[in-house]
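User: Last request for today: this protein with heme C, please.
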Amino acid sequence: MKKILALISTLAVVAGFGSAIADPYPEGCVSCHVQTEGADMRLSTLLEMKGHARGANRTVEVPTGCNRCHAPDGEGVAPSTRTLVHSIHFEYPLENTFVTQYGGECTHCHAMDGATGKAVIKTGKRNWEYHVGE
Ligand code: HEC
Ligand code: HEC
Ligand code: HEC
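Assistant: Here's the final one, the structure of the complex with heme C:
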């Protein structure tokens, strides 16, 4: 019995149960893709560097607003975000900094809705300025 209890408490610590470990990325994409003194990792900047059209910067709610073109069923003008975003963050896992430096957790982008038992995508407002006419 003692052994089982010890195991349970170890699991509890590992899973963070009962402790107030805050989610470091509560809004998913925009919580991690930020501008710091050292680097500008905002999606607006990264996508601009990749030559993405300005449609991305007009998006308000990230990443769900991107679905306007990146339709989840793959029928939009661009591939679904799930296809693009999963491969970007998990390609070459031994070298991919999302995995090597950020732990590669699904929960960095997804949250669990306990009531429905469904995994959902976390969202947040864009963290860049966009002026109409730009
Ligand atoms: C916990 C941090 C984190 C979160 C959350 C996150 N990313 Fe990333 N993202 C990264 C890292 C690290 C890289 C660089 C991966 C590599 O080494 O290629 C990256 C790369 C990217 C790139 C490629 C940029 C380039 O220059 O090639 C895009 C686009 C991107 N992420 C979009 C998203 C979107 C959209 C979301 C939300 C659905 C998201 N990311 C969530 C950390 C994160
Ligand atoms: C107005 C339409 C539109 C909107 C809105 C849009 N995109 Fe795109 N995106 C495109 C098109 C078109 C492509 C090119 C697809 C192709 O090459 O087949 C693309 C390509 C991409 C790529 C691949 C780039 C590469 O070089 O590999 C990423 C990543 C991406 N979009 C992320 C996003 C994110 C994140 C958002 C929301 C913040 C967004 N897009 C909003 C139309 C859009
Ligand atoms: C960097 C961000 C990111 C990470 C990390 C991530 N996902 Fe996703 N995932 C997305 C995005 C964006 C979508 C598309 C959401 C939408 O269509 O609105 C998605 C969609 C999905 C879907 C489809 C949901 C559905 O309704 O069909 C599944 C399943 C999924 N992810 C599983 C995973 C698993 C398992 C992991 C961890 C191994 C993971 N994801 C990690 C960004 C991420």
